[in-house]
Design brief:
By secondary structure, the chain is α/β, with parallel strands linked by helices. The protein is 39% helix and 16% strand. It folds into two domains: 30-114, 3-Layer(aba) Sandwich (Rossmann fold); 140-273, 3-Layer(aba) Sandwich (Rossmann fold). The protein has a six-stranded parallel sheet. The structure holds ligand L34.
Length: 293
């Protein structure tokens, strides 16, 4: 079997079409959705992601604010920026790009964000609402994965979804979403991680395999069932002297081999990454809609 590609660009274009209409409707009511992104320090990957977020905001005709703060920013300074954005009525949603420098307590920063502006869906109250199936926002990366499945016509109900990785950003919320009742979910979910002894045995039973473990080409063909749907959330930059930049992006899945066995697969780049940006925009629009009522 040769896998069909699920392309983030294609799926996100469909969603952007829907968002443009919602943004028009908000503007007709005198409201321009505003999204702010806070970047502390100069991590090269974060700079790329933050730039893409700002560009997409502008392309959609939303208000975009990028706040760049130096690496030496103190926790107090960052918390006061968060308080300022919480109070700014022109900013309907914002996020603080992770990872933060080591001297800053990430949890304290996330806890300080007004949950109604928490477009990442990282605040404990939004995580809790997602878990009980009454969400205001869904976390961008897992929501992007779910949209890729739904809009590609992949049946999820009753399917065995195996999530590889247990981060708060992807693995845990992804598992929580796929086990909910409703379209794009209703799955039987297993989470495996670095401490799972028989990991390959379990991944081989997945109808839908969602990989977010942060290790380049961790999932090889022998770990995948024939005909499985494989979603690769990894974005690992590896050095490659044959590339102009001296490095290139690879996923957590050995794409070349696994794509011979899977029924559907997402590439890296061009897969889940663009969906993360898209679902973030969707959350910002939603935050603005809630204010308008
Ligand atoms: N607070 N921190 C917060 N929110 C987030 O939603 C993120 N994330 C993750 C890292 N930290 C965060 C992102 O924005 C990962 N992430 C992200 C966003 C976009 C892309 C990848 C990860 C993306 O656009 N990837 C492109 C390639 C980009 C490149 O050339 O480097 C792709 O096609 O996969």
């Amino acid at each position: 079997m040769t896998a069909k590609l699920i392309l983030g660009k294609e799926v996100s274009e469909e969603i952007y079409g829907e968002l443009r209409q919602k943004i028009e409707a908000l503007k007709a009511k005198g409201v321009t959705p505003g999204l702010a992104v806070v970047l502390v320090g100069d991590d090269p990957a974060s700079q790329v992601y933050v730039r893409k977020k700002g560009e997409m905001c502008e392309e959609l005709g939303m208000k975009s604010l990028t706040v760049k703060m130096p690496e030496e920013t103190t926790q107090e300074e960052l918390l006061s920026k968060v308080a300022e954005l919480n109070a700014d009525p022109s900013i309907h949603g914002f996020l603080v790009q992770l990872p933060l420098p080591g001297h800053i307590d990430e949890e304290a920063v996330i806890n300080a964000i007004d949950p109604s502006k928490d477009v990442d869906c990282f605040h404990p109250s939004n995580v809790g609402r997602m878990l009980i199936g009454d969400p205001d926002f869904l976390p961008a990366t897992p929501a992007g994965v779910q949209q890729m499945l739904v809009r590609s016509g992949v049946e999820t109900a009753g399917k065995h979804v195996v999530v590889v990785g247990r981060s708060n950003i992807v693995g845990k919320p992804m598992a929580a979403m796929m086990v909910q009742k409703g379209p794009g979910a209703d799955s039987t979910v297993t989470v495996v991680h670095s401490r799972t002894p028989n990991l390959a045995e379990i991944t081989s039973t997945a109808d839908i395999l969602i990989v977010a473990i942060g290790k380049p080409r961790f999932v090889t063909a022998d770990m995948v069932k024939e005909g499985a749907v494989v979603i690769d959330v990894g974005t690992n930059r590896i050095s490659d002297p044959t590339h102009p930049k001296g490095s290139r992006l690879v996923g957590d899945v050995d794409f070349e081999e696994v794509s011979k066995k899977a029924s559907y697969i997402t590439p890296v780049p061009g897969g889940v990454g663009p969906m993360t940006i898209c679902m973030l925009m969707a959350n910002a629009v939603r935050a603005a809609e809630k204010v308008v009522g």
